[in-house]
Amino acid sequence: QKEVEQNSGPLSVPEGAIASLNCTYSDRGSQSFFWYRQYSGKSPELIMSIYSNGDKEDGRFTAQLNKASQYVSLLIRDSQPSDSATYLCAVNPGYRGSSNTGKLIFGQGTTLQVKP
Amino acid sequence: EAGVTQSPTHLIKTRGQQATLRCSPISGHTSVYWYQQALGLGLQFLLWYDEGEERNRGNFPPRFSGRQFPNYSSELNVNALELEDSALYLCASSLRRGAEAFFGQGTRLTVV
User: To probe the interface with A, which of B4, B97, B102, B108 has the most A CB atoms within 10 Å?
Assistant: First the structure.
């Protein structure tokens, strides 16, 4: 089982629709969760972080975390063609013993295509 | 405020040579992470430095090494380059371990 799993897509949505991106993780002790957007040939850009169960909204983006189900999602409302990119879910496994492993584990990413 | 900066942007090396990649974190950030992203693949964790020390290492051979300097900048060295080392190498920094990490623009390494 991969540590962080995402559906590779592509996920295709019409302009103005809601895009829903999902991610599951295997380490139940994980503490921090992040969503990055990566355009082709560019580096990842942080768009959302979430640390506790529930929803967190920032503009058109909403991150949802359910630690019991080991599931984190990203909703993009009013999707625009400029949102077309690969979305990476990243998880920090948190503290092991007395030290944080410190690394962010990334999923393979979901490619989103927003069609005009 | 300046973001994470990496140099060089592009690097072409011959198989068997050594490559040195550099990273300057965001001011005040003490943690630096290195990732490898081969074409069409995901981000693979290479190394994590925090407060000048190597804290964690991914599943890469020992010819991948690095260090963090007193000013928290970092260097990644790849010895005995192989063709499959060709990839985008990404550096990220964070204010503290486990916090949000911000990426530089990457160094595209091509081994011929």
Answer: B97
